[in-house]
Design goal:
Number of helices: 3
CATH superfamily of the largest domain: Pleckstrin-homology domain (PH domain)/Phosphotyrosine-binding domain (PTB)
CATH architecture of the largest domain: Roll
Strand content: 25-35%
CATH topology of the largest domain: PH-domain like
Radius of gyration: 20 Å
Order of helices and strands: HEEEEEEEHEEH
Largest sheet: 5 strands, antiparallel
Strand order of the largest sheet: 3-2-9-8-7
Helix content: 25-40%
CATH class of the largest domain: Mainly Beta
């Protein structure tokens, strides 16, 4: 092969890699969101000096758990699972402030909750919060779940 043919092959490979890098996140998001009951949900991770780092993601309702997927990831498996019986949400919400505003989805509210892995803060839209609280209160009979503090 001549130099220009190698150059053409290399350019073609680069174009295909760029196309795959653009198409994969779109395909992954559609695959995760293919079932009904998905919503945007950001999780906080505590940093040093009491600050919070937010990780954007998408959550999906299941029968007895919520599956959370990071927005910027490659796995089709959820990174976190929140079991309904072990998720307690503080009924009070607050608006993001300071550095939180550009780090979160527009219009988000923040709620505190306890999970089986400890204390977390969730950022979601007011409508998604209403849906989450309704989902928590709609636990099957006999489970004795009252998850709104």
């Amino acid at each position: 092969m001549s130099v220009w043919q190698w150059t053409l092959v290399c350019l073609l490979v680069i174009v295909l890699l760029i196309a795959a890098a653009i198409a994969f996140p779109v395909w992954r998001r559609r695959r995760i969101s293919s079932d009904a009951g998905t919503f945007e949900l950001a999780l906080s991770r505590s940093g040093d000096r009491g600050t919070h780092r937010w990780v954007l993601g998408v959550a999906r309702y299941g029968e007895d758990e919520i599956e959370w997927f990071a927005t910027f990831g490659v796995s089709l498996q959820p990174r976190h699972r929140f079991v309904r019986e072990r998720l307690e949400v503080d009924g009070r919400s607050r608006r993001p402030h300071g550095r939180e505003v550009p780090a979160l989805y527009p219009g988000s509210v923040i709620v505190s909750c306890r999970t089986d892995v400890g204390f977390r803060q969730l950022a979601l839209t007011p409508g998604a919060l209403t849906g989450l609280l309704a989902w928590l209160e709609a636990s099957p009979p006999g489970h004795g779940v009252n998850n709104v503090l």
